[in-house]
Amino acid sequence: MGIGWNADTLVELASREGRLTVEQAPDAIRSAAAELEPIVRKLTGTEAPFQLTIEATNVDAYWAYWLDGSGPNARLRLNLRRAQFTEVQARVFALHEVLGHALKGASYAARCAEFDVPWVRLLSVHAPQQVLLEGLAQALPMFVIPDDEQVAARTRLAHFGQLVMGEMHLAINAGATIEQCVQMARSRVPYWTDETIGDILHDRSVNPQLRTYLWSYAAGIDWFVCLAEAGGPAAGDVVRAAYRDPLTPPDLEAMWPEGPRVGVGRLPSG
């Protein structure tokens, strides 16, 4: 895209994508979700209805946006302390949070209402299904709008960032020093600030909840990017199944036996 790999990469990328104000972001996300919803429904085979509420908040946390809810009702929170909005990111947010999480959760709820499903009807960040939930949500653009160059760039950039965070995650928990991990991060991602690197290492080393939960992002996006790149019948089968049941890593691997094991694709071994 002609954007340099340096400390200003994200600034240049945001300028190229068309910046949005905080006030413009909710409408832009809703508009993108409405545009892309028919494509996602056709891809996934779900007809489940859902309702979305968007709220603005300001909290000291790693996340820029977060979705939760119950049944067909979903709430999307935008963290003004972390989130930056562009027209392209609105499309990414719409796919990740609205059509990746809200629609999937509503699909599970609708299935539970019709069938006596064999799984617990409560999702948790500690559960093994989180690899599916965060992995597919991050990689969903590659299945839905693979020809959108700008969205693809954001998705590829997120994938690379998660691979580096996975590398740091393993290193800090295997006994590497803070200095070694900081040097690793700076050599890989020049636009990460000291605060960003510090948060990554803190969350993945001393916070028990995030130490497990955040690994699902790296393991999940890598597996689903591999699946999207491979294509074929397995890709469609897995995506449709993912909107019917909260699949575990062994479930995913069984549906695509030719693919990598979850967490052992392009992530470092450890």
Overall description:
By secondary structure, the protein is mainly alpha-helical. It has one domain (9-255). It has ten helices and five strands. It has a three-stranded mixed beta sheet, with helices on one face. Strand 3 and strand 4 form a beta hairpin. The relative contact order is 0.13. The mean pLDDT is 93.
Please state roughly what percent of the residues sit in beta strands, choosing from under 5%, 5-15%, 15-25%, 25-35%, 35-45% or over 45%: 5-15%
Q: What's the tally of helices?
A: 10
Q: Percent of residues in helical segments?
A: 55-70%
Physical arrangement of strands within the biggest beta sheet: 2-4-3
Helix/strand-derived category reads mainly alpha
Mean pLDDT: 93
Total domains:
1
The low-pLDDT segments are none
Order of helices and strands: HEHEEEEHHHHHHHH
Main sheet properties: 3 strands, mixed
Shape: globular
Compute the number of strand runs.
5
Distance between the termini: 34 Å
Radius of gyration over alpha carbons? 18 Å
Structure characteristics:
mainly alpha, single chain, 3-stranded mixed β-sheet, 270 residues
Write the layout of secondary structure elements.
Layout: H1 9-17, E1 19-20, H2 25-44, E2 51-57, E3 65-70, E4 73-79, E5 85-86, H3 87-114, H4 130-144, H5 149-173, H6 178-188, H7 194-203, H8 208-230, H9 232-242, H10 249-255
Parallel strand pairs: 2-4
Antiparallel strand pairs: 1-5, 3-4
Helix pairs in contact: 2-3, 3-4, 3-5, 4-5, 4-8, 5-6, 5-8, 6-7
